[in-house]
Design brief:
There is one protein chain. This protein is α+β, with helices and mostly antiparallel strands. The protein has two domains: 245 residues, BirA Bifunctional Protein, domain 2 (2-Layer Sandwich), CATH 3.30.930.10; 92 residues, 3-Layer(aba) Sandwich (Rossmann fold). The chain is 40% helix and 21% strand. The protein has 15 helices and 16 strands. The longest helix has 20 residues. The structure holds zinc ion (ZN) (2 copies). One zinc ion binds next to α6 and α9.
């Protein structure tokens, strides 16, 4: 009997895995260039971590978590996001005593029981970075710049738009929330049920609502940026002017409040112009470390949806990613196989993607196979070549071929020269 994969999960292979690897390679390179270290944390954590760290009136915690009791009766949750987990690790491992700022990155699978949409899965991956220990707007800039540079490396600058906002600190936000509630109150009955709850529990989130009625009510609502205290206001101005100095285009979108409780001051989203969804989102969260029991530490970071990024890149990269066989050996007989085997090993030691028949195919079948897998070169060793200790190296891209010595150094030289 056949067993299918679970709803909201996927198998990644073929063209797709090449796109994933291409992105992951760029992530590793860019994080290392920005002097950020990788962190890996457990797939499951105590449910309490997310209730406290993400907020127990968020959709994530209320509706979307994979939570279960383990055999020891503990309430366990598969991580629905990673900031809370990284903060837990930061506190638990005493990283606050390290030289600050502490700059970490991760790429990992996460789990949310969500409605299916394009680019959205129940098991999904995010790349993210978290900077701890700087309250300066310069950290906000560095974090946004890294995302911007990643999009640049992936040739996506024309496909994305950076939207930013400030949601102030607890002081200015309290004043704003009062004004917002005052404004909504006469029309509260027109709002959706979710917003009625948000009105009491987390009024800012009403601005996130996708219901037409709610959007209509909020059309003329006061905006947080008009209520920022002096410190928050200066910070936001600094963020904007520095982005301009760096020639990073942005739009101020006063509606960005982010779906998570722990943000303050700068929040931002990189939106896909084509798909109209946020591919990367983040901001400052100066209170989260305290909330989770650590020493008060300012922090800023982002999460980037890998599945969404793959979707955006997919159209652009169709057939453009390099095939991964550099040299395929087409060998006539067993004797040739033995000789070539050593050369194959030596090329592989030099990181040349080298392949040789393991199916006992005929000479002609090997040739056909080499064509089918789009090997960049084929190295032909027939009887004559074997007797002269030579081989025919054929460049499959331009069709040119040369007879050269059957030596790994000579083959290596040819390939390197022609690349
Ligand atoms: Zn403020
Ligand atoms: Zn609503």
């Amino acid at each position: 009997m056949r067993i299918s994969r679970q709803k909201g999960t996927k198998d990644i292979f073929g063209e797709d895995i090449k796109i994933w690897q291409y992105i992951e390679k760029n992530i590793r390179e860019i994080c290392s260039a920005y002097c950020i270290e990788e962190i890996r944390t457990p797939v499951f954590e105590a449910t309490e971590l997310y209730a406290r760290g993400v907020g127990d009136d968020t959709d994530i915690v209320n509706k979307e978590m994979y939570t279960f009791l383990d055999k020891g009766g503990r309430s366990i949750t598969l991580r629905p996001e990673l900031t809370a987990g990284v903060v837990r690790a930061y506190i638990e491992n005493g990283m606050s005593s390290l030289t600050s700022p502490v700059k970490l990155w991760y790429e990992a699978n996460m789990y949310r029981y969500e409605k299916m949409q394009k680019g959205r899965y129940r098991e999904f991956a995010q790349f993210g970075i978290e900077f701890f220990g700087s309250k300066s707007y310069l950290a906000d800039i560095e974090v946004m710049m890294l995302a911007y540079d990643l999009f640049k490396r992936l040739n996506l600058l024309d496909d994305i738009t950076l939207n930013i906002n400030s949601i102030g600190c607890s002081t200015c936000r309290a004043k704003y929330i009062e004004k917002l509630k005052e404004y909504v109150k006469p029309n509260l009955s027109k709002m959706c049920d979710t917003c009625k709850v948000r009105y009491e529990k987390n009024p800012l989130r009403m601005l996130d609502c996708k219901e037409e009625n709610c959007k209509h009510v909020l059309q003329e609502a006061p905006m947080i940026t008009d209520f920022l205290c002096e410190e928050c206001s200066i910070d936001f101005e600094n963020v904007k002017s520095t982005l301009e100095e760096l020639n990073i285009k942005y739009i101020v979108d006063k509606k960005i409040v982010r779906g998570l409780d722990y943000y303050n001051k700068t929040v931002f989203e990189f939106i896909s112009n084509n798909f109209n969804f946020a591919v990367c989102a983040g901001g400052r969260y100066d209170k989260l470390i305290e909330t989770l029991g650590g020493i008060s530490t300012p922090a800023v970071g982002f999460g980037l949806g890998m599945d969404r990024l793959v979707l955006i890149l997919k159209e652009k990269l169709v057939n453009k990613l390099e095939k991964n066989v550099d040299v395929y050996f087409v060998v006539l007989e067993k004797k040739a196989y033995t000789v070539c085997r050593n050369i194959v090993s030596s090329l592989r030691d030099n990181n040349i993607a080298t392949d040789i028949d393991i199916c006992n195919r005929s000479f002609n079948a090997q040739l056909k196979y080499a064509n089918r897998i789009n090997a960049k070169y084929i190295c032909i060793v027939g009887e004559e070549e074997l007797n002269n200790n030579t081989c025919i190296l054929k460049n499959m891209q331009d069709g040119k071929q040369r007879k050269i010595n059957l030596l790994s150094e000579d083959i290596l030289k040819e390939i390197v020269i022609n690349e």
